[in-house]
Amino acid sequence: xxxxxxxxxxxxxxxxxxxISVITVISMLGxxxxxxVLVFVMSVFSGWQREFRQMLIGFxxxxxxxxxxxxxxxxxxxxxxxxxxxxxxxxxRPEVVSAVPVAxxxxxxxxxxxxxxxxxxxxxxxxxxxxxxKLKKHIAEDAKGNTKVVDQKTGKVTxxxxxxxxxxxxxxxxxxxxKELGAKVGDxxxxxxxxxxxxxxxxxxxIPEDAEEKKRAEALDNVTVLSKDLKLVxxxxxxxxxxxxxxxxxxxxxxxxxxxxxxxxxxxxxxPEDVEKVMDRIYHSGAIPDTWVYSTWIQEHAxxxxxxxxxxxxxxxxxxxxxxxxxxxxxxxxxxxxxxKRREIGILTALGTRAWQIIAIFVSxxxxxxxxxxxAGLAGGFFVLSxxxxxxxQISSLTGRDIFPQDIYFLSSIPAHTxxxxxxxxxxxxVALCLLAALIPSWFAARVDPAVALRDGG
Length: 458
Prior knowledge:
- The chain is α+β, with helices and mostly antiparallel strands and 458 residues long.
- The protein folds into two domains: 4-54 and 305-457, no CATH class; 61-300, no CATH class.
- Helices cover 55% and strands 16% of the residues.
- Strand 2 (96-111) and strand 3 (114-123) form a beta hairpin.
């Protein structure tokens, strides 16, 4: 009787023109749908999670070492170590690819009367600047290698060569910000220091409204804003390089009143995914003085990364309910089959078939349904994954809404990454739930009294 349960399970699954065949097919479709949805959604989510991390590594400094902030004017505060000496020490570390001084802050960009604030990084245009090298890969270009420029008034499309060059009075911004500002490559933008703009507004407000026109004009003449004309030499893709702007180091130092100092030293590491361990090792080795602190790309985006992890977990719980519904369908099928086959169960029991063999018949039937559904679900899930971007375009054209907006996910196409361990977990969970769902009605069916079963079945 070792193969009898499987033989009978296959016999009961033979297609017939009966209600049992219909609900069996429905059960298979339920499992297929559950597995297919899980495979598609979790692959897309894992792909986005993976691409999001790689995107951050691709344009963010891996780590930033900066002076410990102390209250201004505090004579007792220790003076930070010289950044030049610290840069040499950090650059010699085997874990470090490059150590680049940077000046960070916020500027106000003006073009045709349109003013907008923007975070900016000032850097030196050095050949070993790893941050500059990886940022150059994000220049917004068409297939010919030229920057695409669309005239906002006429709609005419032209192409200009963009070059990430920070050796002159120039600026590099994102293509999205350039569009909002109405600027194109080759334009000259008026850039203001944020602090001077804030100070300008405060000084203007301090001028009495009832002051004489002459005195008011004299007061306004004494109010100045630190401004500079910078040429837009290139634009970066906002979907892969974020929204920051980049200017030469001397320009940033002037804007942020740093003189010859810097905001910090940006580090590019050989192992950016292990940045926390690497920076902890560098710090405890004494390479970073006590008057300096460090931050990593993971710390800077901790909220976003934690949110992604939480969404991943919640997605698992939500989608598992689809599998629960599919397993309930299998349970209904098993209940129906055991009721219809009540007389046969009685005969098998009267002939000496053990309870566990009766249970094995219907659990095997549920297992076959689950396996067929899983295989069909995997095929369907991977097929939908292969046409995901085409489907996105079709849905967007029909509904007028982008289901994967670039502004939110920072990616121009829907990514996908299938984790084998996650795929195994999906398949195992689907089969286990179906077997567990079939076990309960099968157990009750195996406990039936043969005489009662034969009498009721007859």
